[in-house]
Design a protein that fits this description.
Layout: E1 2-7, H1 14-20, E2 22-25, E3 28-31, E4 34-37, H2 44-53, E5 59-61, H3 65-76, E6 81-86, H4 94-103, E7 110-115, H5 120-135, H6 140-150, E8 154-159, H7 164-169, E9 186-192, E10 195-202, H8 205-217, E11 219-229, H9 233-243, E12 253-256, H10 259-265, E13 270-278
């Protein structure tokens, strides 16, 4: 049997991960000298309270190689092989740490580590499909083939209130072109080949949300859909309701982004993640 491991940036709801047997290795959030495992020691609500009240700006860190080794060893007793699906190696060193974790294993088990070139639930969808294939009896090569097939079908688009957190965290990439604008803009951000890229801007938040809807409407086929947010639940719920015209509302995943993501985006991020096939043109 093949078991799937991913990281907390995949933003999988706990029930989804548990239902598919996916092991999630959490990244680290630090406020000064205080350290928390992403989504384990610090809830999303607690994180934003600390963001408002703390004099320290949050920083994030990868898990340790030993964290991955421990996860692999726990699974090795029940698995023939382990497939590790990581967030973009161009955004984080987590992929490299996951590779180093193999060297520290105490038990013998084949472990393959895959760079998804994604983040958020776009990454999570790849892990989900790999786990579904493994549950149906796929071996490691077959499961890996499913994951690689799904990576180019997974995508995301999001709108921000501010890019300041991305800038401070060093993850802004080409979207730095938006900085310093004298206009009040609402930037749209996407991932392209694992890097944060600008995807347009709007003059109002309402228009930005419309753009998210239009983006999803541009898909001919949707296998999975998620609406995620950082501290704007009403907007997320309203958008999910609108998207119910394009995809069954009861199947749309809702997610409050984990503290590690919030540390790089701040409040007010609204995101759609899609697994599917875009319309031609």
């Amino acid at each position: 049997m093949v078991r799937i491991v991913t990281d907390s940036v995949a933003d999988l709801p706990a029930g989804v991960a548990a239902g598919l047997g996916i092991t999630v290795v959490p990244l680290i959030v630090r406020f000064g000298t205080e350290e928390y495992r992403d989504g384990v020691d610090l809830s999303t609500e607690e994180f934003y309270e600390k963001l408002r009240s703390s004099a320290d700006f949050p920083v994030t860190a990868t898990p340790s190689p030993q964290d991955f080794a421990d996860a692999y060893d726990r699974l090795a007793g029940e698995a023939d092989a382990i497939l590790v699906i990581m967030l973009s190696a161009r955004l984080s060193g987590t992929h490299q740490v996951a590779l180093k974790g193999r060297e520290l294993m105490k038990r013998r088990c084949r472990v393959e580590v895959l760079d998804s070139r994604l983040a958020t639930m776009a990454e999570g969808f790849v892990a989900m499909k790999a786990a579904e294939a493994a549950r149906e009896g796929a071996n490691l090569e077959e499961t890996l083939a499913v994951a690689r097939r799904e990576i180019p079908r997974a995508d995301m688009l999001c709108c921000f209130d501010t890019l300041e957190y991305l800038r401070r965290g060093g993850r802004i990439g080409a979207a730095q072109a938006f900085l310093g604008s004298v206009l009040k803009i609402h930037p749209m951000i996407a991932l392209r080949d694992g890097v944060v890229m600008p995807a347009g801007r709007t003059r109002s938040r309402a228009r930005a949300v419309d753009r998210l809807y239009e983006y999803v409407a541009g898909y001919e086929r949707i296998d999975e859909l998620a609406v995620e947010h950082t501290a704007c639940p009403e907007e997320a719920e309203e958008l999910a309701g609108r998207l119910g015209a394009l995809y069954p509302r009861e199947r749309i995943h809702g997610s409050k982004m984990t503290p590690v993501i919030g540390a790089h985006t701040g409040p007010g991020l609204l995101l759609v993640a899609v697994l599917g096939d875009k319309r031609d043109g």
